[in-house]
Amino acid sequence: PRPLLIMHAENDADVDVTQARKLFRRAREPKTLWIVPRAEHRQIEAVAGAEYRARIVNFFDQAFQNFADEA
């Protein structure tokens, strides 16, 4: 299985947050959904910079660790 990380801005006026939730519901594990409070379209990093970067690093750390464990 391929890990999936979906990040979506809570106040996105271009792509409704329900779209992210639908994708998440339909995806297989392992999966993570992060709805970023107070963020608008393309503003996740500006609103949650340190947490945004930490979540991305953590996601790839876990994904590659799982990949290494399977090899």
Q: Which runs of at least 5 residues are low in confidence (pLDDT < 50)? A: none
Largest sheet: 2 strands, parallel
Instruction: Please provide the count of β strands.
Output: 2
Helix content: 40-55%
The assembly state of the depicted protein chains is single chain
What is the gyration radius calculated from CA atoms? 13 Å
Question: What is the approximate shape?
Answer: flat
The number of distinct helices, counting runs of at least 4 residues, comes to 2
Distance between the termini: 14 Å
**Averaging pLDDT over every residue, what do you get?**
95
The SS-based structural class is alpha+beta
Strand order of the largest sheet: 1-2
* Pattern of helices and strands: EHEH
Strand portion:
15-25%
Describe the protein's topology.
Layout: E1 4-9, H1 17-26, E2 31-36, H2 44-70
Parallel strand pairs: 1-2
Question: What's this entry about, in short?
Answer:
By secondary structure, the chain is an alpha+beta fold. It is built from 2 helices and 2 strands.
Written overview of the protein:
Helices cover 52% and strands 17% of the residues. It has helices at residues 17-26, 44-70, and strands spanning 4-9, 31-36. It has a two-stranded parallel ribbon with strand order 1-2. Strand 1, helix 1 (17-26) and strand 2 form a beta-alpha-beta unit. The two termini are 14 Å apart.
